[in-house]
């Protein structure tokens, strides 16, 4: 009985995943239009110049003057521009106020620059011969 339940759950998830993949593929195909910036499966970025529906061929301009003819299915995703930080000065000040990384030395935190710990106050780590 348990085996049948596990099998039913597996089949349910297989159908669910295939529907999700089909939905994502259909959404990608609607976004693939001339002028869209895309990335191919091999990691090549470019702008679509034209699409030939009958041959499933896409003309992709990778650099100005370089046009590549690719199969339509090699388009992996449509690239959307990433919004830059609204105030870069605020991001810089947040970094300055952050705690030091593990093992990072802080200038003026109990020791003088250029000295090892313990040398500034005259103490040593050697055992006394008493």
Automatic annotation (TrEMBL):
Which parts of this chain are annotated as the region Disordered?
Answer: 87-130
Cell compartment(s), UniProt: Cell membrane
| UniProt cross-references to InterPro entries, sorted A to Z | Preprotein_translocase_YajC
The protein's UniProt keywords, in alphabetical order, are:
Cell membrane, Membrane, Protein transport, Translocation, Transmembrane, Transmembrane helix, Transport
Checking Pfam families in the record gives: YajC
Membrane topology type, per the record? Answer: Single-pass membrane protein
Q: Name one GO biological process term.
A: protein transport
* Thylakoid found in the keyword field: no
Q: List GO terms (cellular component aspect).
A: plasma membrane
Q: Is Cell membrane one of the keywords?
A: yes
State the similarity comment.
Belongs to the YajC family.
UniProt protein name: Preprotein translocase subunit YajC
Phylogenetic classification of the source organism: Bacteria, Bacillati, Actinomycetota, Actinomycetes, Micrococcales
